[in-house]
User: Fold this.
Amino acid sequence: MHVERDFASLSDKALHDESLGEALDTVASVMPLIRNQALTQLEDFAAARERAREVRDEALNRLDYYLEQFEAQVLAMGGHVHWARDDHDACTIVARLCEEADAKLVTKSKSMVTEEIELAAALEQRGLEVVETDLGEYIIQLRGEKPSHILAPALHVTIPQVIDSFNTHHKIERDRPLEDTDQLLAEARAVLREKFINADVGITGANFLIAETGGVVVVTNEGNADLTASLPDTHIVVTGIEKVVPTMDDAGLMLRLLARSAIGQRLSNYTSFFHGPRREGDTAGPSAFHVVLVDNGRSDMLGSELQDMLRCIRCSACINHCPVYTAIGGHAYGSVYPGPMGAVLSPGFADLDSARHLPNASTFCGRCEEVCPVAIPIPKLLRHWRTQEFSRHLRPRSERFGLGFWAWINGRPTLYRFVQRVSAGILRRLSVAEGAGRWIRRLPGPGAGWTRHRDLQAPAAKSFQAQWRAQNRDSRK
Amino acid sequence: MSEADPAPMKSVSRGKRVGLLATCLVDAFRPNAGFAAVKLLEQAGYTVEVPAQGCCGQPNFNGGDEPGARQMALSIIQTFAQFDFVVVPSCSCAAMIRVHYPELFPDDAEVAALAAKTWELTSFLVDVAQVEAVDAALDATIVLHDSCSGLRELNIREQPRALLAGVRGLQQKEPANPDVCCGFGGTFCVKYPDISARIAAKKMADLQTAGPCDALVSTDLGCLLHLGGSLHREGSELRVLHIAEVLAGMTDNEEAD
Assistant:
């Protein structure tokens, strides 16, 4: 997986994007409300969450067993299962399947794994026409962009920008100019319908794989996955090896938590269970059914401290509740997986060096863990990466030096007191008396980060401990 | 420091020794909050001591420097093992000891014992000392800022509100989105100052929804220095008070020097 390294300039750009800021403010104010409402309708969210955690842990602890069970069931239904070690493997397998199907046009429903492995680009390189059919994903495909949210990929795009894209890319005569969302929807529907009908191969992701039935569960709110999967003669499912759950009942539980956590729905508009290719007597459905199971770094997380992250069901609750994501949006993370979940996954799927900013760009406020429907200890996992970065010397020298000095001087109380007294004196000399307090408006060096946006209240002339010692010496209690 | 005049309180607590971990920020920036904490603990009937102390190691722990964090933790453990309770006027520093020391030293009985007897100040007063009302008055309208560590690591939400409700003349207001981070995040605020400032701006807007207030109050001085500094830069007149200062009736000399 590819991660843009330049977090600083990407986040800076995002902070200056006003329309993005408005979209993110809406996410921050609306999504927690509707999630909360939907979850309070559940009889006992805490119990459901605990059960969901157990289901995912069971699947991960015996992943080999459940994947083989899933594979056997798919084979028994006449489908095929392919194992891809990494993104390159996965793209090669899918390209070969498309070639075998003699495909020219491929439709896709939204899938984060196919974004992760950059499948669309790989297929286009081989001369295929690839069309995204989720509306948001379709819009960013026209714009040549990456998703900025795992559920709402075009969150950052404004309506006028969509109108622009449609005007540029749709070669159709209209009786009046594009203006409102209804028109945009109607036009996208008309264009995409044509693609649905003519596609040779349909590619979907999977929200869950059911080991006991060999079923593939896909949820959408637009129904595009059903058209993608059912109309072409070949259906290829591309998903991560961690998506398996043991039973149909387990899938039911996960679905109830997924839709509520994601967008406050009791159930997604469309929830489809795909079981193999068309059977004899079926009037519709693909004749070829393939599942490509992608590892791409996942098995390295198994058995490590990061295994908890593999429980993730991609609901985006952590993203919607993150103060950092809702300040800078998804593109700033430089990864198709943004926000807290992405900051844990990206270093694992790509490499820690390119993704090194992401685990650090967190205030550790813990809201991500609190809202996670499968109770992933995200701050702890972010800290795991920080610890790796520190021990592998990936942090800036100034930071290593600062932390090292802090630990060192804390082991030398006399020196600490001296340095504290001297620096308090210097800071107070830099400060200006205002009302009851003394304030510093501008600091050099490492303090500049503070005073760029805030004033600093001057430290006390004499520390609490120094005052305490002086008083106790005077009064001897 | 105002004259400590221990009120006659619960006999169970009388004589029990509390070690106060003042925290680096209170030590350097707000000694008055430290003395306020001492006063509150003495009023509740405890004997308070302030042993010579350093940092709990939180910056190093969160910065990925586990060896450094362990070294600092060991010093705190040695210093504070002798007390019946360790009380900390900060949720994040208290959580460092209560929640994270056992992660740094798994299966260590001494560390587990220290973690179990370490409390954030307001939580200690309510949950352990069972203080129902403090003896303080402040004629002011305040808005309370919750600490993320308090909410999500220590289950502290009602304790500060309950104690503030007992301050005579005090009006408490709630901001919008009280469970959202203010953007301080320890070293985060200097590593990513622009993002931190954006989050602070949203927090300041949320604080405004509480209506006109005289002071912003919190359990954690980190949030207060960050928000106070941001407010001051904007020209706001809102005072910033540590909750210990309010509860101890020591708000007149908060800029102590």
